[in-house]
Specification:
alpha+beta
């Protein structure tokens, strides 16, 4: 039986960040089911580093990641760049007040703006009850992040196995002893689950009920239109759930829709556009960012975002299974939070104090709600409570 001191299951942004932060002091092996690293949920996002979010623990992870990316090691010098960001509210002017206060207390520049079009021309003509300008927000290149984490991992002797599906955790007397793949059994003192939508399924096969719910979300690729410019800040109308970020060919746009969708074991997470959801996202864009009403859909996809019922990440040691560690439930914030996740997991495994994070709030064994708010069309005030469905371990 071969293996490593630590096996990280999942080679996306969270898994590779954990592996890179662990590698200097541990023998680490990353096992990824896809032929390449970072090809599932990590490749499906718009790359925005967003610190002005709803949850304080998610913000703590985002603050840590953004600070690290502002002065990164040489391997990550080209992994992100400053674009600035406009975050607005169409209906509830108080929705992000706590978040603004938190960021300002942490020294982040967050400026209230009455004329958002002066910093983000795409916002011209929109009617917002509140808008915030964050001049230091970034966009990141997920591929560059993955390559940087891989370089760090391998420099310290860590290894990667792609094209290898983990079918089950191996256990002895309530302790994880490794993983079973299609090809062999790999031994480990510690296993980190960072497989996104598939993490809860692997845990369920070991008798652990951890409610992680995958939802499918739409991403559009549009034409440029008259307002496009490459340096335009990314713009997010938060309470109605629509954002636009320029890329080289036009805009990346999402209506932040959520459809519960547990993936099939052998399938990938990227799916085709749903015409209804695509039309809904475009209609939202035209209503809330009318300056972009001239863009046309050129392509897109749907991807999976995985949430716990309280919409907080699931991070740290599992209290019911010695040696099992979680790095899951990031809910689409993998780019924003991956560095913080890697640093936090590495510190927790070394029994170091993580003073910047309230780890108990993210504990895998914490009580979870039995119902959770699903934002079907991406709009906060139209969220509907749904019963928590546990994954089928078969």
């Amino acid at each position: 039986m071969t293996g490593a001191e630590v096996i990280v299951v999942g080679g996306g942004l969270a898994g590779m960040a954990v592996a890179a932060f662990l590698a200097p002091e541990h023998d680490v092996l990353v096992v990824e089911r896809a032929p390449g690293l970072g090809t599932e949920a990590s490749s499906q996002n718009a790359g925005m580093i967003r610190r002005l979010g709803e949850d304080p623990q998610e913000r703590a992870l985002a603050l840590r990641s953004a600070a690290w990316l502002s002065d990164p090691p040489p391997e990550f010098a080209e992994a992100s760049r400053v674009t600035g960001a406009l975050v607005g509210l169409a209906h509830d002017p108080t929705h992000l007040n706590d978040a603004v206060a938190h960021l300002r207390a942490a020294g982040v520049r967050v400026e209230a703006v009455d004329r958002p079009e002066e910093v983000a021309p795409a916002a011209a003509g929109t009617h917002l009850t509140r808008a915030w300008w964050l001049p230091d927000e970034r966009v990141a290149d997920p591929r560059a992040l993955i390559e940087g984490f891989t370089t760090v991992l391998q420099r310290h002797g860590g290894r990667v196995r792609t094209g290898t599906a983990v079918r089950a955790l191996t256990l002895r007397s309530g302790r994880v002893t490794g993983v079973e793949t299609d090809e062999d059994v790999l031994g480990a003192e510690c296993v980190v689950l960072a497989t996104g939508a598939w993490s809860a399924v692997l845990a369920a096969r070991a008798g652990l009920q951890r409610p992680l719910i995958p939802v499918r979300r739409t991403m559009l690729q549009t034409s440029r239109g008259a307002a496009w410019r490459s340096e335009h800040p990314w713009t997010w109308i938060d309470d109605v759930g629509v954002y636009a970020r320029p890329d080289s060919s036009g805009w990346l746009v999402s209506g932040c829709d959520e459809t519960i969708a547990f993936p099939r074991e052998a399938a990938g997470s990227t799916g085709p556009l749903d015409p209804v959801q695509a039309a809904h996202a475009l209609a939202k864009l035209r209503r809330y960012l009318p300056r972009l009403a001239d863009v046309e859909i050129r392509g897109g996809w749907t991807g999976l975002r995985t949430f716990a019922p309280d919409r907080r990440p699931v991070l740290g040691r599992d209290p019911e299974c010695v040696g099992l560690v979680w790095a899951a439930g990031l809910g689409g914030y993998g780019v924003t939070c991956c560095v913080g996740v890697g640093e936090a997991i590495a510190s927790l495994l070394r029994d170091e104090r993580v003073g910047w994070l309230r780890a108990a709030a993210l504990d895998p064994g914490r009580p979870y709600p039995r119902r959770w708010p699903v934002r079907g069309d991406g709009t906060l005030h139209r969220a509907r409570l749904r019963a928590v469905r546990l994954p089928d371990p078969a």
